[in-house]
Write a structure and sequence with these properties.
The protein is of the alpha+beta class. Strands 12, 23, 25, 27, 29, 32, 37, 39, 41, 43 and 44 form an 11-stranded antiparallel sheet that branches. Strands 10, 11, 13, 15, 17 and 19 form a 6-stranded antiparallel sheet that branches. Strands 14, 16, 18, 20, 21 and 22 form a 6-stranded mixed sheet that branches. The protein is elongated, with a radius of gyration of 59 Å.
């Protein structure tokens, strides 16, 4: 149970006190009324004795009574009505609320924060992580006070309002004060009348109420004297007369009203009555006029002077008065309903009673009394108790005891024979029916059993608990023997209490007595009031012994359906028991608080119900018990709404909606409508206030995306707009990095290779992945789109209407002067910022959905987007709210809206966590996220790009012509238009010079993208020569081939102007899907301080399918003479394979032309032996071509420094494609530049071997060749029964003699996994010796001899044949050559085939060949018989002249030089 102000040792004696009746004459009542008090009320504050009292028990032992209190009350002859008692108790509880303004006691106990107190608690109590320890700590600390004053008030009022009953005598009147005034005409006669009146009430059978303890009631005569108005002498004389008649012990002169009430303002006299009387006016705001109880005053009193106590018992300390009518002189309390519902804490605490008293001006209790009068009243009570009441009680106990002992028989025991002597009439035999009736049987008043009970009660009232216990114990046995169950239960109850209160605790508290009593009262006697008294007393006793579990069980046992208020209070106390246990049961506490709250609600105690639910919520919240939380929140919301605590109601309903609810859709719909209903009421209270924050739908703030610019136009026929950036694109970090690199590349080119420090990549779309640390820049008159991610957590659809962005704008002039008018614009000012409103936005159940909201800035300045504003509602369905009907829809959209409230939600985005400095790493800090705070800058040009006839599918290498349209849609001219791409080999705008670029396609038969010239058929197999410089095609030295200026006429695009340019595309060499990114860069003609340039992105997606595979090799021709008689012919072998699997509908490929492009070499003619002029390749066919290549003439090669390339075309058709013009040369140069970008294998350099390196380099150069082959083709495609001709080109770049080159990129074969080898590396320098292949290319040898030689062997046995050996130096350095003829073929196979011969003459020649010199040696071979001989036996050794190190290696001929010797 909760802590109480009184201990149980104080509570029980204060609950059972001697009762004294008061009977006043009208004049006496008038005197006390001057103080706005009745006589009984006048005595109330002084009814507790200030000193100990002594009396003697029957054994003449001295017995000390401490803190004795008496209860004086007016005689009321009607028993109180149960309905009136119920109303009184209800009002007492509703009047007592947790005190306002005191700090709540929040116990932060590990898992739980429990606010269970009305007093403040010092936070110095050490908190433990375990809440059990914490609660233990709190319980033991004196600071812990979870009090429940409403329960104490209820208990006090309940115990005092108990009607007197026949089976016990504790609240029967022991004495009666007869009060008359000294102003009466005949005071003594008045006393006689009062005495007769009392006698009549007690002994006349007409009055069954009130009850009197014994027939011989003590009468005490009190003479009231008004000091200020009365005659003191007369009063004294009357008093003397009284003393003679009634004895000094039986009468008293009480002097009051020492001053007149009009002097009240002179000095401030304390008002001890207010705490008894004022409480009723505060706590019970409605007066008890409608109380069902009848109150009779004695018949001598005036009709306007009512006796004020509705019940027999007087209220004790801190109690509520049980008057059933308002004080007649009391001013009406304001019964303004707002007063009674202004919150659970509106009741004033005890400390504020003083202020309340001042508020009730006019009512001052005891206004005519001075402090001396207070002392006189106190003295009067002392005298009455000492001289009148206690001697009377002592005498009565003695008489009862003597009666019992005087007839003792065989036993000397105090109470042994009582029944035998006192059973005046034989107890009747009890029938079964009698036993079953409520109380068993009824005793006559003089029955000896009742005398014992009477004596026990008297002893109990004067705190003689030992004697009381033995009497109760005896009586209990007698009652049980007689099966008088009501009497037995009463004796058991009091025996248990007496046993507990016995000084020194000789015996343990007999809890089983109480249990039996409770069971008897409840089940047999059906008297819940008495059962409840038992429970209240027993629970207090158990609590004082820390038996909380038993106390809780007891309290719960008495909860029943007959009284919601009682059940609620007992359940709440049981909950407090659970939390006060040694190991607190927090969840049981919460559960019983919920039960208590439910019963409070049924009892109409809304504030207490709300408080209970709130306290239980502290335990349930955050534990994942969502249905329980929903139930509690719903109830809290309902109760708060009933109490007009609308903010609390809103927040409770908000909790139900925002936590992930597991409720059914119907229930959620009900919750939502109830929430909207309450919210509407709240918003109507302050219609002009700020817009409230709405809880639904959820907004994922970090997923908010902001897009600057216009929406992309849809494709229009053949026109396709650039993809640019849009909110429909998913964020991809890789691609955003690529775009960033492209932009950096173009900015670097524009700024002469340096990226300026102020450069910041352009971001059109900001999201959670972008860098939002800077204020983004938006352009005036260009829309800003904010994408807000909504999520509906409920199973019911939400309808948002009139949805728009909430913003504030600060107009600024960035040119310098600041215009500091800050406008917090929520709705208006469309001339500054236009706001788009979405009239309806429906989010279905549990759906995530984005809304795109636009703003149109019309002025430069700083914009801050704050959030969204909308009406939240739900679609009108068949569901209705329990108890609250939905309002009719006042909405004309396509959905019918049931009810809606206007509110806002803020977009608050947390920036990225900072993690750079040490301080940031050790603490949690977040950077700014400024995506919602754009700066609106001045006008900028805006480019739109359209692609016309842009293909989506190409063959590898296919050339296609398209057009690009550039449109300036802004009001500013734009310039410096460039396009940058990572794949420049994919497209071209044509060369720099218009001459090179062919005209747009004429309507000729082929619509060829190439520039063609018709040729005559004679020049078929010889090459046609032309030349071009790579600078003309933008591939200069040190240039960035990726950045391509767009050839705008006049380099400026005026506002509203558009220009169309041709664009050639070439399908990439690899098959598959290619994403090719173009970034268009442009600037404003007028330079802007904030934005230097703008960009436009386009991603082209091209699907390529296989066409031709081309592979080529080049090798030295063995014939050394060319037209000029110089060496250096090459043979070029080209293999072309049709790899197309005809999925593109390609019928066949025609090779129409093979061109070469090189600075040093050119194709001369085709050496194809077949007469097939038409080079056709059907699917999977392969064609082989052989061409002769020669060095360019010196004059052609002389201009190589200007990057001029010689183009030679060999034509297989009847049209020459000029390969040195666009687009053929463009794509050739592009592919060449991308090939040159590939890293070449670099040799490691060692300085000490520098000369060796040079030598190696020279030797390597001999085997290098820079010949590039361009294969031009046509493909015949059948599509929809029409034949199309596609054309294209492939490039093969030949670099090394004898090494095969390919037109398509080779896949790198992954090496197989090898075992790991552990070895110690040998410290070997990198070998700088050239390879055998490279050395074999240093000197080219050629033997000239007749193919067959006829010789008459019969005439001359030796045949001598002259042979010329031509030696050609391929390198640019001098070479020393040794020719050795002594070599013999040793392998037997060679001998078998060729036979042997002998060289005649010099066997070794040493020569030096100058750079590219050709030298001939005349040799003689000698044969002895006919046969076929291989003349290729001379060994040639070479070394560079200036090298010390000799690289000598045999120069083997690749082919045998066969000669046939015939006999003539």
């Amino acid at each position: 149970m909760a802590q109480c102000v009184q201990s149980v040792q104080e509570l029980i004696p204060d609950s059972f006190v001697p009762c004294v009746a008061a009977l006043c004459s009208d004049e006496a009542e008038r005197l006390t009324r001057l103080n706005h008090l009745s006589f009984a009320e006048l005595l109330k504050p002084f009814s507790r004795l200030t000193s100990e009292v002594h009396m003697r028990d029957p054994n003449n032992q001295l017995h000390i009574i401490k803190n004795l209190k008496i209860a004086v009350s007016n005689i009321i002859t009607q028993p109180p009505q149960p309905g009136a008692i119920r109303k009184l108790l209800n009002d007492v509880v509703s009047g007592s609320q947790p005190a306002e303004g005191l700090v709540a006691n929040v116990i932060t106990a590990g898992d739980y924060d429990l606010n269970i107190s009305d007093r403040s608690i010092k936070a110095s109590v050490p908190w433990y992580s375990n809440w059990k320890d914490t609660l233990m700590e709190l319980k033991e600390s004196s600071l812990y006070t979870a009090t429940t004053p409403w329960f104490e008030s209820y208990r006090e009022t309940f115990l005092q309002s108990m009607p007197a009953s026949d089976h016990e005598f504790l609240n029967h009147y022991l004495a009666c004060m007869l009060v008359a005034s000294s102003n009466e005409v005949e005071p003594m006669e008045q006393f006689s009348k009062l005495s007769q009146e009392q006698h009549r009430i007690q002994h006349n059978n007409d009055y069954s109420y009130p009850k009197w303890f014994i027939p011989n009631t003590l009468k005490y005569y009190v003479l009231l004297h008004d000091v200020s108005a009365g005659d003191e002498q007369r009063a004294e004389s009357i008093y003397e007369e009284m003393k003679q008649k009634y004895g000094t012990q039986g009468c008293y002169l009480l002097k009051i009203n020492s001053r007149t009430s009009n002097r009240a303002s002179d000095e401030q006299i304390p008002d001890p009555w207010s705490q008894y009387l004022q409480k009723s006016s505060i706590q019970n705001q409605e007066s008890y006029e409608d109380g069902p109880c009848t109150i009779t005053s004695n018949k001598n009193s005036d009709s306007n002077l009512l006796s004020l106590d509705g019940l027999d018992n007087e209220v004790k300390v801190d109690g509520l008065p049980n008057n059933f009518r308002a004080h007649p002189l009391q001013l009406d309390q304001s019964s303004d309903p707002s007063n009674s519902i202004d919150g659970p804490d509106h009741v004033k605490s005890a400390s504020s009673l003083h202020e309340t008293k001042k508020a009730n001006t006019g009512i001052i209790h005891g206004a005519c009394l001075t402090l001396t009068d207070h002392d006189r009243i106190r003295q009067f009570i002392q005298e009455f108790t000492f001289r009148g009441l206690l001697p009377h009680i002592e005498k009565t106990i003695r008489q009862l005891n003597d009666q019992l002992i005087s007839r003792k028989g065989l036993s000397r025991s105090l109470f042994s024979a009582t029944k035998k002597w006192f059973s005046g009439s034989k107890v009747p035999e009890k029938s079964i029916n009698e036993l079953k009736n409520t109380s068993g049987l009824l005793y006559p008043p003089e029955a000896p059993e009742l005398q014992i009970r009477k004596m026990a009660d008297l002893c109990f009232l004067v705190q003689h608990y030992d004697l009381a216990y033995s009497c109760y114990h005896t009586a209990k046995k007698d009652f049980l023997n007689d099966q008088a169950m009501l009497y037995a239960a009463g004796a058991l109850e009091m025996a248990a209490v007496s046993a507990f209160l016995q000084p020194g605790a000789p015996r343990p508290y007999p809890a089983h007595y109480m249990d039996t009593a409770i069971q008897t009262y409840r089940d047999i006697c059906k008297n819940m009031v008495l059962a409840e008294r038992c429970v209240l007393l027993s629970a207090e006793i158990l609590k004082s012994q820390s038996k909380y579990s038993e106390a809780a069980a007891l309290l719960i046992r008495l909860t029943s359906e007959d009284s919601d208020l009682r059940s609620a209070l007992l359940l709440e106390q049981a909950a407090h028991c659970f939390i006060n246990m040694k190991s607190p049961m927090v969840r049981k506490y919460a559960f019983h608080m919920i039960l208590a709250g439910h019963r409070f609600s049924k009892a109409g105690q809304k504030k207490h119900a709300l408080r209970c639910y709130c306290q239980a919520m502290q335990v349930y919240k955050g534990k994942g018990w969502s249905l329980a939380e929903d139930h509690i929140n719903f109830t809290i919301g309902r109760q708060s709404y009933t109490l007009r605590q609308l903010d609390n109601a809103v927040s409770a309903f908000r909790h139900i909606l925002i936590n992930e609810s597991k409720q059914s859709a119907v229930q959620q719909g009900a919750f939502l409508r109830e929430y909207l209903y309450v919210y509407k009421n709240v918003s109507q209270l302050s219609p002009d206030g700020p817009l409230p924050q709405l809880p639904l739908p959820y907004i994922n703030s970090s997923a908010t995306r902001v897009f600057f610019g216009h929406d992309r136009r849809p494709a229009d026929g053949e026109k396709q707009a650039a993809t640019h950036v849009s909110l429909d694109q998913e964020y991809d970090s890789e691609s955003s990095q690529q775009w960033r690199e492209l932009e950096e590349q173009v900015v670097a080119v524009v700024n002469k290779g340096i990226i300026p420090s102020s450069f910041y990549p352009t971001q059109y779309c900001l999201n959670s992945y972008s860098d939002n640390s800077r204020f983004p820049l938006a352009v005036v008159e260009e829309p800003i789109t904010v994408e807000v991610a909504f999520r509906n957590p409920l199973k019911v659809p939400l309808l948002l209407t009139d949805l728009s962005l909430l913003w504030k704008f600060q107009p600024k002039d960035f040119s310098g002067k600041d215009n500091e008018e800050v406008k917090e614009l929520i709705t208006g000012e469309p001339e500054m910022i236009g706001t788009e409103v979405i009239s309806e936005f429906l989010i279905n159940s549990e759906e995530s959905k984005v809304a795109r909201l636009k703003l149109f800035p019309h002025h430069i300045g700083e914009l801050h987007i704050l959030g969204v504003v909308y009406n939240l509602g739900t679609i009108q369905g068949s569901m209705t709210v329990d108890g609250i009907g939905a309002l009719p829809g006042c909405h004309t959209g396509k959905h019918s809206l049931s009810m809606s409230v206007r509110g806002r939600q803020d977009l608050e985005i947390q920036g990225p966590r900072l993690n750079n400095t040490k301080e940031e790493k050790t603490s949690i800090k977040y950077g700014p996220d400024r995506r919602l705070d754009p700066i609106i800058t001045e006008e900028m040009p805006l480019l739109e790009v359209f692609f016309i006839h842009f293909p989506t599918g190409l063959l590898c290498g296919e050339i296609r012509k398209a057009y690009v349209e550039f449109v300036n849609v802004s009001k500013c001219p734009l310039t410096a238009l460039k396009v940058v791409s990572k794949r420049p080999e994919f497209f071209t705008f044509g060369g720099n010079t218009a001459v090179l670029t062919p005209l747009s396609p004429s309507a000729s038969e082929n619509c060829s993208a190439y520039k063609t010239v018709v040729t005559d058929s004679t020049s078929v197999c010889t090459a046609l020569i032309s030349s071009a410089s790579s600078v003309d095609f933008g591939i200069g030295i040190g240039s960035q081939p990726e950045v391509i200026p767009v050839p705008l006429p006049d380099t400026v695009l005026l506002p509203g102007a558009s220009v169309q340019l041709p664009m050639w595309l070439r399908g990439p060499d690899e098959e598959g899907v290619h994403e090719i990114n173009f970034l268009f860069y442009y600037e404003s003609v007028k330079k802007q301080p904030k934005i230097r340039h703008r960009i436009l992105r386009h991603t082209a997606v091209i699907c390529t399918s296989r066409s031709l595979n081309v592979r080529a090799t080049v090798c030295r021709s063995n014939s050394l003479e060319d037209e000029e008689g110089r060496g250096g012919n090459m043979l070029v072998f080209v293999d072309v394979e049709n790899t197309n699997t005809s999925e593109a509908g390609v019928k066949e490929f025609h090779i129409v032309q093979v061109s070469s492009s090189s600075k040093h070499w050119k194709l001369q003619n085709s050496v194809n032996l077949t007469e097939n002029k038409e080079a056709k390749l059907a699917s999977r066919e392969k064609g082989k071509f052989c061409f002769k290549a020669v060095r360019c003439k010196e004059k052609e090669a002389a201009v190589q420094s200007s990057e001029r390339y010689t183009f030679a075309d060999i034509i297989f058709g009847n049209e020459q494609i000029i390969s040195s013009a666009s687009p053929c040369a463009d794509f050739f140069y592009r592919s060449l530049s991308s090939e040159l970008k590939k890293p070449q294998a670099q040799l490691s350099l060692h300085t000490e071997k520098h000369s060796i390196e040079d030598a190696v380099r020279l030797i390597q150069k001999c085997s290098e060749v820079d010949l590039n082959i361009i294969i031009l083709w046509k493909a015949y495609v059948v599509e929809d029964s029409k034949q199309l001709i596609l054309e294209g080109q492939h490039h093969v770049i030949l670099r090394t003699i004898g090494k095969e080159a390919f037109s398509y990129p080779q896949k790198q074969e992954l090496p197989e996994m090898e075992l790991l080898k552990f070895f110690r590396p040998e410290n070997t320098a990198v070998s700088s010796r050239p390879s055998v292949d490279q050395l074999s290319n240093l000197i080219k040898t050629s033997l000239h001899y007749p193919e067959s030689f006829n010789h008459p062997f019969h005439q001359k046995s030796l045949c001598l044949v002259p042979v010329t050996l031509l030696l050609s130096n391929c390198s640019k350095a001098d070479v020393d050559v040794i020719v050795d003829l002594r070599h013999k073929t040793t392998s037997p196979e060679a001998l078998e085939i060729h036979g042997s011969f002998t060289w005649l003459g010099q066997t070794q020649y040493k020569l030096q060949l100058k750079s590219q010199e050709i030298h001939s040696l005349q040799l003689k071979a000698c044969f002895v018989h006919t046969g076929v001989y291989n003349l290729g036996t001379p060994r040639v050794f070479a070394k560079l002249s200036d090298q010390v190190t000799v690289f000598e290696t045999s120069q083997q001929n690749s082919m045998p030089a066969l000669i046939i010797i015939n006999n003539m």
